[in-house]
Amino acid sequence: MAAPSVLGCGRAASRKVLRLEARGLQAAAPTAELCTKPAGSGKPPKKTTAVGEPAPEEFDNSTYKNLQHHEYNIYTFFDSIAVLSKFRQPQPSSGRPSPRH
């Protein structure tokens, strides 16, 4: 869309481009000819110093310990199923055996 490129050129030029775009005549209205003022603000752009990317830290797999899944304790998933199974409510049945059993 050419409208954003001519917004800095003035209201009349941008209105004309928007009108032409609405009609579908984008090829008939080159935006470079409509612009009478420079698009820049007149100030030179600030120079940014290129900062190199820091070196990635080395990852040591021997220090990674996920004890939650590799240690047996009172919070293990299967323990909670065994403890809570006596509180489980019977599920309604249609009277016929399940296809999974």
Automatic annotation (TrEMBL):
One of its GO terms (biological process) is mitochondrial ATP synthesis coupled electron transport. Transmembrane segments: none annotated. It comes from the Eukaryota. It holds the Pfam family NDUFV3. InterPro entries: NDUFV3. GO terms for cellular component: mitochondrion; respiratory chain complex I. Residues 35-61 are annotated as: Disordered. This is NADH:ubiquinone oxidoreductase subunit V3.
